[in-house]
Every structure is written in C-alpha cells, then in structure tokens.
Amino acid sequence: MNKEQYVAGKSIDQWIEDFPVIDDMVSTKEVVWINPNYDVSKSVSNSLGKHDVFDAEKRLNRFAPYLAKVFPETKAMNGMIESPIVPIRTMQGYLEKRYNREIPGELWMKCDSHLPIAGSIKARGGIYEVLQHAEDLALRHGKLTIHDNYELFDSESFRDFFSQYSIAVGSTGNLGLSIGIMSAKIGFNVTVHMSADAKQWKKDLLRSRGVNVIEYASDYSKAVEEGRKQAENDPNCYFIDDENSKHLFLGYAVAAKRLQKQLDENKIIVDQEHPLFVYLPCGVGGGPGGVAFGLKLLFQDHVHCFFAEPTHSPCMLLGLLTGLHDQVCVQDFGIDNKTEADGLAVGRPSRFVGKTVESLLSGVYTIEDDELYVLLQALSDTEKINLEPSALAGMLGPVKLTGSEQGKQFFETYGLEPKLKQGTHIVWATGGNMVPAEIMDEYYQRGLSVTQKNI
Ligand SMILES: *Cc1c(COP(=O)(O)O)cnc(C)c1O
C-alpha cells in the first residue's frame, strides 16, 4: 500500500501519526480501540428516543397474531420473534485456558442465531421494516385500522393487494434472507441484490421461496447501490436501505427491552455495582447500533457496548476514529474487505449509525478470520451450539478487554476493576441456525485444522 496516498486531504502516513491504531489496522492486525468520545449524556439527546422504540415494539405486538399464524415456529412464543439468553460457563473456561487469563464475571450468550424465521439478528430489523411498510400501505389504502386483528394479512385479498408492490434490498446474505422470506410471505414482489460474499445456500433458499435474487461480482456497497437504483425507477418499489434506515434500526433496538426482561428472569442485576458488557459483531452498523442504542436508553452508563469487526473489514472503526463515517472506506486505506465472515463483509460504514453511536459506544476491536473458526469449533464442543463465522466475533470481547493495555485502561478510567467479579458479559451470537449441516461441518473442520496448526 502507498502511504503517500491521500484520504480526505491527508496522507495515510499523517492519518497514522494522528491515530496510531491505523498502522496495525492497515496491516490487518487485531486491535482494541476505546472510544475517547464516550459521553452518554450526549447520545440520549439524539433525534431518536424511547418513544420510537416503544412504538416499534407496539407495532411488532400488533403483527404477533399474524406471525404466529403464518410462521408456526413462532407459535410457542405467541408470534414474538425472540431468542433466549444462555450462560456459557464451559466456553468461559475454554477461553480462560486458551488465552491464559481470568475472565471475571459471568459469561452469557444472546442466541439471535436461533431467532425464528431467518436465523440471524436480521430477523429483528429486516422483518420489522417489511411489516412496517406493509402496515403503512394497508392503512393508507383503508384496508386496515390498527385495532384490527392482523391475521387479516393472511388472506388472498391482502396478498393480491401487496402483489402490486415490490421491495428491493442489497445484502451480503442474511438481510436478504430475512427481508426476502418476510416479503414473499406478505405477498410483495421482492428482489434481493446479493454481493459476491453471499453464500450459495442463502441464494438457493431465497429462490426456493419465490424471491428474485440478482448476483454481483463486487461487494456489499455495489449490491446496495443497485437495489437503490431499482427502486428509484419504480414508484411502487420500496427500497430497504441498510445504510440509512431508521426503521431497521428501531427493529433492532426493541431487543433491549426484551433482554432486560430476560436479565430480570435470570436474576442478573445491572446497576452501578454490577456492570454489563455487551459484544456485538458489526457490519454496516445497523444491527449492533440499534441494539446498543436500545440498551443505552435502558441502562445508561451501567452497560458498556463494544463492536467487533473482522481485521479485513474494520469499516465502523475507521469511520468513528477518523470522524469521516461514510466518507471513508477500508479500501481507501488499502484494506481489502475480504473476510469469511460474510455478515460483516462491509467496507463502508453507515453514517447514520456512526453519528448515532459515536458517543455511546465504549469501543471497537477487530478479530482475525482464523480465530472466528477456532471459536466456532470450541463453542460447538463446549456448549453444543453452532454459529456461523460472523457470529463468533463477539466471543473475543471479554478476552480482549481483560488482556489488552487498552482494556485495562478502560476498566481503570471508569472504575470498573473492583466490580468485574459481579459483572456480566453478553456475547451477541448473531447468526447460524439456518446454515446447512454439511456447511457447518466444513466450518467446524476448518476450526479444528487452525487449532491443530497452532499447537
Ligand atoms: C448483518 C450481520 C451482522 C451485523 O449487522 P450490521 O447491521 O450489518 O452491522 C452481524 N452478524 C451477522 C451474522 C449478520 O448477518
């Protein structure tokens, strides 16, 4: 890479001088970055607030009877799309041993990998936005009031009505799955523009549900751009904008209140003396950003949110660090955006999310692909839980915080050291349940071979 190259008026050398962590980032080494702009009092005054999240939650409740009817796997939960939290003590022991350190506090996992309908965190934002749009159309055309039983949506007349409209989205895979499956069920014409990273089985599955899948040889940003173009030329086409959508964001944010209830049920305290650390895999930012935003509304300074990105796609970190947000991409710094973690293979971050989380996020760290596979195999062995590679990015969070200078300084700055023992870590497991068994086995084998290589 040419360090004389200019990015936003500065040479890369100058950027590195101003932000030394960039040096390791361009060499795709793992880094830990603590956010110097953390200030929760600023973030709550953002244009979105509690009432928006509450509104999103109520909308999902209105649709619950419909979802329970058309997706039988949601019936046991009365049409609520939610995942459990589970303690992962054996995995915690494994991490302590492998990385040779103590992880004080309890380690839990949020199993969004097992969310019904789409098997990933995208079942929150993606499904929410499709429902929001469907409700909006039905209300505007006098087919519905918000007091009706939404089982109405499961009718020929509704499906006929929605077949006049289309939905477009650009995706690396999981967002396409969630939006494709939900839109097709409602009756929309839906097109998913897939980046080159998207896995074949995800495209096959969508096609089998009647979704149009268009494939591109380039990355996520191109797929999104094409989706946007399709919608611009067609007034009946609604584009779900992963880079800017407030609806997606709010759909993700609803997770926080439901998590709070689960924490209560499991007698997990979150307050001044009992810190909560949450580790969220980050692609363009909407999923982890929405969840973090919701959590900060509820727990303010008592929750500490960290994003995790692949060493080859650290777009959110680059955007936050430089303050350039969507005006910078990893390729500008000679980083190739090539990662096996397809859900995180994003080179340019969302500006909307970056601006929203810039003062509420505690930090970001990066993780190597090989490590994702090692953790994938280990989680399968220790807890019998299978995740896709992207979803393991959060697992290194407690290790990074307890084992790095930056982490130690962070604990010190916020007086956390003496409270760690009574604290809780939650690793957000963002996907994996829909991965076909033979592909999961390949992932597992790759984890094994990396582990053996390193012995
Ligand atoms: C999409 C995705 C993420 C990240 O969500 P963004 O909104 O892109 O930041 C994390 N993990 C998995 C498995 C995903 O599919």
From TrEMBL:
Enzymatic reactions: D-serine = pyruvate + NH4(+)
Domain Tryptophan synthase beta chain-like PALP residues, every copy: 98-398
Cofactor(s) essential for the protein: pyridoxal 5'-phosphate
Sorted UniProt keywords: Lyase, Pyridoxal phosphate
InterPro entries: D_Ser_am_lyase (IPR011780), Ser/Thr_Dehydratase (IPR050147), TrpB-like_PALP (IPR001926), TrpB-like_PALP_sf (IPR036052)
Family: Belongs to the serine/threonine dehydratase family. DsdA subfamily.
Protein name: Probable D-serine dehydratase
Protein source organism: Brevibacillus choshinensis
